[in-house]
């Protein structure tokens, strides 16, 4: 498959519709196209973790990261999202962009059955709730689920201020600083990646 350049990927992602009425308590802050493009493009170009892979998107919202992974050649992308309205927008985005091999499952990420989903995906990607709305630690709980689902790497957006906590629990690597106080972390359940990963400061 033809590799998308970063700029072209971002152009496609600018066509993805976002939340009509974001639910603040669910921390439904959209992932900007620039951040989604940089994150997914890095996952593929630096680590080969998208093309031909089974990819899960936890707390997928309207599908920005799922669609990015699909455009970069994922074999199958499955989003998991609790909110009905977000699921509807996700599915409409997929239809509008005529994308194959991508779907969204309405589910509570924290209650996914182990017997069905554990080790079911090569790669997991997420922009989890940061835990700022009386739900402290929610991002760590999402990361725990991602570690269960993935046989390969887990990529997650997090506040820079909480990196130490994540890295004390997991062998994680900072891949990119994509915005002030926001960065992409990669966690490798197999601890097989080298820790000397280049950091690309994008903004």
CATH top level? Alpha Beta
Briefly note the CATH topology name. Answer: Rossmann fold
**Rg result:** 15 Å
Oligomer: single chain
User: Which architecture would the CATH scheme give at its second level?
Assistant: 3-Layer(aba) Sandwich
Binned strand content: 15-25%
Total number of distinct structural domains: 1
Instruction: Label the structural class.
Output: alpha/beta
What would you give as the CATH superfamily?
Vaccinia Virus protein VP39
Please explain how this structure is put together.
The chain has helices spanning 6-13, 33-47, 64-71, 84-96, 114-117, 138-149, 163-169; strands at residues 54-58, 76-81, 102-106, 123-126, 154-159, 172-179, 182-187, 200-201. It is built from 7 helices and 8 strands. α2 (33-47) packs across α3 (64-71). Helices cover 33% and strands 21% of the residues. It has a single domain (45-196), classed as 3-Layer(aba) Sandwich (Rossmann fold), CATH 3.40.50. It is an alpha/beta fold and 203 residues long. α3 links the parallel β1 (54-58) and β2 (76-81). The model is unreliable at 166-174, 176-180 and 193-203 (pLDDT under 50).
């Amino acid at each position: 498959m033809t590799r998308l350049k970063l700029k072209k990927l971002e152009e496609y992602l600018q066509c993805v519709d976002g939340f009509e009425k974001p639910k603040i308590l669910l921390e439904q802050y959209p992932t900007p196209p620039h951040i989604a493009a940089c994150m997914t493009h890095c996952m593929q170009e630096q680590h080969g973790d998208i093309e031909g892979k089974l990819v899960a998107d936890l707390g997928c919202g309207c599908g920005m990261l799922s669609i990015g992974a699909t455009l970069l050649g994922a074999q199958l992308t499955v989003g998991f999202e609790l909110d009905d309205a977000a699921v509807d927008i996700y599915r409409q985005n997929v239809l509008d962009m005529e994308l194959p091999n991508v779907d969204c499952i309405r589910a509570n990420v924290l209650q996914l059955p182990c017997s069905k989903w554990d080790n079911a995906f090569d790669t997991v990607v997420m922009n989890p709730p940061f835990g700022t709305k009386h739900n402290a630690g929610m991002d760590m709980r999402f990361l725990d689920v991602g570690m269960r689902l993935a046989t390969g790497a887990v990529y997650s957006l997090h506040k820079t201020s909480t990196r130490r906590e994540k890295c004390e629990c997991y062998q994680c690597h900072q891949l990119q600083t994509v915005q002030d106080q926001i960065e992409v972390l990669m966690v490798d359940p197999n601890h097989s990646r080298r820790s000397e990963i280049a950091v690309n400061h994008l903004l």
